[in-house]
Amino acid sequence: MQDYHNLKEHYKFTDEEAMILKELQPRMNKLADVFIDEFYDYIWGFGKTAQFLKNKEIISYHRKKIGEWFINLFCGKYDLSYFTYLYKIGEIHVKIGLPTHYVNSAFTFVRTFILKSIEENFVNKEQHIKEIRAVEKIVDMNLDTLTSSYREEELSRYLSLSKVEKNILAGLKKFNSYINYFLAGALALVAFFAIGLFVYDIYLLFFSDIGIEKGILTVLGSLLVLWAAIELINEEINHLQGKGFAIGAFIMLAMAALIRKVLIYSLSSEKSEELLIIGAVIVGLSISYWLVGMKKKT
Ligand code: HEM
């Protein structure tokens, strides 16, 4: 944190800007309570906020600290102890596992809240521009310092690996991406075959003695499989773009294939035993699908 001079220099933060912020402090002081309430409304919309701000004590402690931090944004004295405290806040957030995304997003609120107040107290253009510039810089420097602990945590985890471990990690990442492309190709092939199955079922409907009822059900079944294969491809695209991979899509594909069998077997009286087994498997898969969905929501 000794390099806070560099930070101020890189943001071209001047003493005049520190003074401008100090002049804003009395007004911001009066706004602190509104700020805290609106800040909380905002971060509560993140969904998992309650996992971090677990009980009334923590919430009231955090509310108090957020208020102090907000007023301190306009303290006018941005020295070593100011930035050391910001760094400490960042470390606490890292320690509790708070996603850095939450902090970034909360800063959008902070920024717009302050700019709105500046907007409402417009005096002249020159002063207005100076105030905006000073506010933008102090907010950005705060965000920079708060998130630097996140970057250092990642870096230290990486640096603590030995050379061999780093090589293995890099190799595994490369191998993983090749496998993913292979999987994407294989899935495209499956979708292609599903189209083939659909065309074949249409052929059977018109040019064999399969019967109209069974024929239509068979076509419907192959459409179901095609739809599930497309879902799986979508999931793989999400995965390649860095989002998680949903096991639910695989379960859905298995269900689609079994439902297709049910549609076909339902017309034949001899297969009632097999139908019963397939039915039980479908129920099992549906429960797994539901459980996977529940886990995603929590
Ligand atoms: C602008 C963004 C934020 C700022 C400036 C901020 C500020 C702070 C401060 C000043 C502390 C207390 C550090 C100390 O003990 O001295 C703290 C702790 C904490 N913050 Fe934040 N915070 C922010 C965003 C968030 C968000 C979005 C969450 C949760 C969703 C969160 C959860 C917590 C928790 C759980 C603690 C620990 C409380 C404890 O000590 O029990 N913070 N934060």
Q: Under the CATH scheme, which architecture of the largest domain would be assigned?
A: Orthogonal Bundle
Counting structural domains, the number is 2
Shape: elongated
For the record, give the distance between the C-alpha atoms at the N and C termini, rounded to a whole number.
38 Å
CATH topology annotation of the largest domain: Globin-like
Runs with pLDDT <50, length 5+?
Answer: none
Structural class: mainly alpha
Secondary-structure element sequence?
HHHHHHHHHHH
Largest sheet: none
Number of strands: 0
Share of residues in strands: under 5%
The CATH first-level class of the largest domain comes to: Mainly Alpha
Description:
The protein is an all-alpha fold. The chain folds into two domains: 4-160, Orthogonal Bundle (Globin-like); 165-297, no CATH class. Helices cover 84% and strands 0% of the residues. It has helices spanning 4-10, 15-44, 49-52, 56-72, 80-95, 100-120, 125-159, 163-207, 212-240, 247-265, 272-297. Helix 2 (15-44) packs across helix 7 and helix 8 packs antiparallel against helix 9 (212-240). The longest helix is centred in the middle third of the chain and has 45 residues, at 163-207. The model has no long low-confidence stretch (mean pLDDT 88). The protein binds protoporphyrin IX containing FE (HEM). The site of protoporphyrin IX containing FE has 20 residues, from helix 3, helix 4, helix 5 and helix 6.
Topology summary:
Blueprint: H1 4-10, H2 15-44, H3 49-52, H4 56-72, H5 80-95, H6 100-120, H7 125-159, H8 163-207, H9 212-240, H10 247-265, H11 272-297
Helix pairs in contact: 2-4, 2-6, 2-7, 5-7, 6-7, 8-9, 9-10, 10-11
The chain binds protoporphyrin IX containing FE (HEM).
